[in-house]
Amino acid sequence: MLVTAGTKLGRYEILSKLGSGGMGHVYLAQDTSELDRTVAIKLLPADVATDQRRMQRFIREAKTVSGLNHPNVVTIYEFGQYAATRFIATEYVEGVTLREHMRSQTVSLDDVLDIAMQVAAALNAAHEAHVLHRDIKPDNIMVRRRDQIVKVLDFGLAKPLTPGNGPGPESGTGALLYTEPGIVMGTLNYMSPEQAVGLKTVDYRTDIWSLGVVIYEMITGTVPFPGKDLYEQLTAIQEHAHPPLSAFIKSLPERLEEIISKALAKDPDQRYQTANDLLVDLRNLKRQLDLDAQNDRTALFDLRSASTVGGHSLPKTAVGSISQAERGASPPASSAEYIVNQVKLHRRPALLLLGVLLLAAVATIFWYMKHSRAAPLTDKDTILLATFENKTGEEVFDDTLRQGLAVQLQQSPFLDIFPEQRVRATLQLMSLSPDERVTRDRARDICQRQGLKAFITGAIVKFERNYSITLEALNGQTGDVLALVQVEAEGKDQVLKALSRAASQLREKLGESLSSIAKFDAKLEVTTSSLEALKQYALGRQEQDRGRSFKAIEFYRRATDI
Questions:
Q1: pTM for this one?
Q2: What are 520-530's pLDDT values in tens digits?
Q3: Catalytic residue among 31, 114, 135, 203
């Protein structure tokens, strides 16, 4: 069937050709039904429509992807047939492939981590649905222009794996490296050692290797295992170590090198075992880099390095000198012997002492039982920051305290805050304005859509000249309260101090250790003593999240001038 602009496939009208791939041609089309949306149509070419193997792969792609519901996986609308032509209608991602994205600009480390985390999240969702992609590469990753949301596509090589039994065996892939139509099962540059030699037991960890190669290429501009020909490439993948990142860029974090090396381990058992494990490490690295950058940004706020809080050495304890006579001729051999001796010498006071010790032991047991309950969250959970309600009627608190709370919580290596750009994108998927206020009900809807464990909401109320601040963490699926903190501020000038105090208490209640809180806890009153400056900063962040950088700079400048 000849397809040109104006060709109609049922309710879809072809607008233009977008490109071609190993599994067919892709077109931009308009859904002329009441939905009235732009879609991408992938067609199986007529000359291979009779090829049973390719047809099976084409159908498998449609079924595979339609079963995945994740914001970083392209959405399948329909798998259909018009006359003798089979097609898949998917969402149209207005953007560029990661390959084009890398060619058109220098990709910052922040962008590298953000893209890598989104791809890892997509793979984790696919793997949890027992789906193996097998062809992760920059050409199969789209970056949406308006918000940098990543979409993984082209599941034409995806293979369902047997649920409950872990990775299932692949059907014959001995011809993996050949390029005849319908035989190619991956792209050599991005293949794991086990996939490249056609092993029959390739599992989820091959996708993790491929993502490791993509991350390496985003950073260095080249694949880790190049070669002049097929033999050299295979040898490099199987036997050679990849050149370290430091050979290309000297100033990269050592932790990033460790993550890449683990993702590219030749032995699958030495590799990340799940995409989620890789995602957690990438997320923790980004969080630490964001924290370091925040501590260095003195142009906006005179931040004190959070790493020095609690980093001071403890003062030496003053120990008095005790003479031999005061100690006695020879000390008891054990604490038990000491207690017995003291009971003999001071029977009545000793009984009182034993009573006190018994009460202390009971109190210790009670404290341990109280504090040894499972923490509401773990460092693998992502949380959403909802709207902070201002019930004071004072405009200076509008959106200001939410931004202040975000600054406090983002310091934590334990808590992972769902990015604001992702919040805005999710609201749009819900057919809402990206600027819609994230109320409790809306926060819970977002958590359920995105699989987030919890959300945090806050409120400030005024009583005469005092203020009361409440923070709540709620289960994103059930709405149950996980933690509640309430603090008082004696006057407006004490509100930021009170918010810092409340944030630290909430972090502890959610499961973060006291040592971590002490180490990563730059107080808001150190960051800025001005509510108005924080408000201008919050307005700047809002404009930046909307993609209006120049307007954001204007607000940032005002913040620094206050």
A1: 0.55
A2: 765 544 444 57
A3: 135
